[in-house]
Amino acid sequence: MSVKITTVAKVLPQYSRSTDEIIPLVKQWLTGQDERFIRKVIKIFEGAAVDKRYSIMDPMEVFSATSFEQKNEIYVREMIDLGEKVLRSALQKANWLPQDVDYIITVSCTGIMIPSVDAYLINKVGLKHDIVRLPVTEMGCAAGVSGIIYAKNFLKANPGKRAAVVALESPTATFQLDDFSMANIVSAAIFGDGAACVLLSSNAEDSGPEIIDEAMYHFYDQAHMMGFKLTNSGLQMVLDVEVPETIAKHFPDIIRPFLAKNNLSLEAINHLIFHPGGKKIMQTVATLIESSGQHLEATKEVLRLYGNMSSVTVLYVLERILERKPKSGEKGLMLSFGPGFSAQRVLLEF
């Protein structure tokens, strides 16, 4: 019994700005700061390898003194709307009815809502009464791949079933107006908002790349590396400058044993579906995989067009790979990193 990825759909928020359009707003935000510091911040934005960002809020609204409560209200409203749109889009692409979905996993870490967004989607889309729900709220950038792993395990245990993984993120809702730390600035420079939905199936009638294997890798004593701190003004970004170096140190242990277990090497992977955490992380990984002949073009392009959308981003990379229509038998490796610190891996056969 195999578990397959049937389709991937994406939806973008209504607001967007290019980096050139954002920089004047950043300069206005930095009014009163040291000139050398301002030049450094602008250089970070210009060198982030992000041409455009989408947002659930108008950029002027992002750079205004909205409270945590106000921003979270926008987050709740827009996540429900984006979730409905992207789930309906995926169902239409797969030619599934809402009642065909047996298991729904919703992924988000950039706001707080109880009940979780899946409860609203059940009502709005008309999912079945006995659908199994799993909201994943605290795994950050890694959660897009994590959601696929959870769906795969459910479907493997339940032949003939179907699952939806809905990832919804708004990093712009976490921007801290009074925080001039490098973590907040780098976050603002590289992150954007977005939504994606992956449909998976253990139904023999459905086609798509098969999930051959999946695994998680947890870094000991690195919980301080990445995450959010809940403050009175909202979710404050935690982002250690040593993240790329830490990934580089562990990379062989993350990749090679996992592939060896499946009688593969990195050189045998045809499509590397890597989460674009940021320019420095991409450069680090590109150096590590250079000798294997792998490249990160799809990952770089997603970062350039949309920025890092946390858990959503790797699913945009997956969609681009699927649109290329890989040849039968080719292998794909999904890889993402997130708070914990952890790495998530999924091996695909097309």
Alpha-beta classification: alpha/beta
Record field, number of beta strands: 13
Summarize the main sheet. Answer: 5 strands, mixed
Rounded radius of gyration (Å): 20 Å
| Count of discrete domains | 2
What does the overall shape look like?
Answer: globular
Strand % is 15-25%
Description:
The protein is globular, with a radius of gyration of 20 Å. It is 39% helix and 24% strand. With 350 residues, the chain is an alpha/beta fold. A five-stranded mixed beta sheet has the order 1-7-6-4-5, with helices on both faces.
List keywords for this structure.
39% helix, 5-stranded mixed beta sheet, Peroxisomal Thiolase, Chain A, domain 1, alpha/beta, 350 residues
Spell out the blueprint of helices and strands.
Blueprint: E1 4-11, E2 15-18, H1 19-29, H2 35-46, E3 52-55, H3 59-62, H4 68-94, E4 103-107, H5 117-126, E5 132-136, H6 143-157, E6 162-169, H7 182-190, E7 194-201, E8 210-218, E9 226-231, E10 234-239, H8 243-260, E11 271-274, H9 279-289, H10 297-306, H11 313-323, E12 331-338, E13 342-349
Parallel strand pairs: 4-5, 4-6, 11-12
Antiparallel strand pairs: 1-7, 2-3, 6-7, 8-13, 9-10, 12-13
Helix pairs in contact: 1-2, 2-7, 4-5, 8-9, 10-11
